[in-house]
Automatic annotation (TrEMBL):
GO terms for molecular function: dioxygenase activity. Keywords: Dioxygenase, Iron, Metal-binding, Oxidoreductase. This is Alpha-ketoglutarate-dependent dioxygenase AlkB family protein. It comes from the Bacteria.
Length: 225
């Protein structure tokens, strides 16, 4: 379903076997060094969702090769499995008609055209316990306009997609469940968004994940190698 221009929700997209594989991989990626960490915000607060990064380390507000605000370790590599998954996800959300006929100078200036030949190179994985939230924000630290791909595992949440002007209304609320895909490109790439609530006990019985929610976002950094 297209929730807003360029924002496409594909419920139940991940095959059960792939959900299990991703959960197991997330548990490995969460281990130190460069494992799960609490993100401190510039105002002296901290995010309630904890995070692990692959490819590049995100910190407010930029990307680094090492965990500059944690153990200082080199960031874990971005696995090719996630690169393939990202390209498949964009194709699933936008369909074959979104495939670029031209790439580069001749391509039309829309994020719909940029995705397929673009190398996804960053994963930000957020771990929500049942109390965790994410306030309304924009993702503007990437230097590329390729769509952000989001995969959800575990407990359901309330996801809020706002507008590109400010944090407030109008917004559209969507429930995200285990296995759902969401792709945010085109006019929605810089929209405000957040996670106001996790719904305890709504998780995926087939996953045996325990309470909480996992979200994997796949991104194109636009940064030099
Ligand atoms: C809409 N994560 O990591 S995923 C984030 O569920 C983030 O953990 C949330 O916001 C989560 O930055 C939401 C959905 C998402 C991700 C990126 C977006 C929505 C987006 C970028 C632009 C617009
Ligand atoms: Fe975000």
């Amino acid at each position: 379903a297209e929730i807003a221009p360029g924002a496409v929700h594909v419920p139940d997209w991940l095959a059960p076997e792939l959900r299990r594989e991703l959960l197991a991989a997330c548990r490995e990626w969460a281990r130190p060094p460069a494992g799960l960490r609490t993100v401190r915000t510039p105002g002296g607060g901290q995010m309630t969702a904890r995070q692990v990064c692959l490819g590049r380390h995100w910190y407010p507000y930029g990307y680094a090769r090492t965990v500059v605000d944690g153990d200082g370790a080199p960031v874990k590599p971005f696995p090719e499995l996630l690169g393939r998954l990202a390209r498949e996800a964009v194709r699933a959300a936008y369909g074959a008609e979104a495939q670029p006929v031209a790439y580069g100078a001749d391509a039309p200036p829309s994020a719909y055209d940029t995705a397929y030949d673009t190398a996804y190179d960053i994963a930000l994985i957020n771990f929500y316990d049942t109390e965790a939230r994410m306030g309304m924000h924009r993702d503007s630290d990437e230097r590329a306009d390729a769509p952000v791909v989001s995969l959800s595992l575990g407990d359901s949440c309330l996801f809020r997609l706002g507008n590109t002007e400010h944090r407030g209304r109008p917004y559209t609320d969507v429930e995200l469940r285990s296995g759902d895909l969401f792709v945010f490109g085109g006019p929605s790439r810089l929209a405000y968004h957040g996670v106001p609530k996790v719904y305890p006990g709504t998780g995926d019985p087939a996953l045996a994940m325990g309470p909480g929610r996992l979200n994997i976002t796949l991104r194109v950094s636009g940064l030099p190698d």
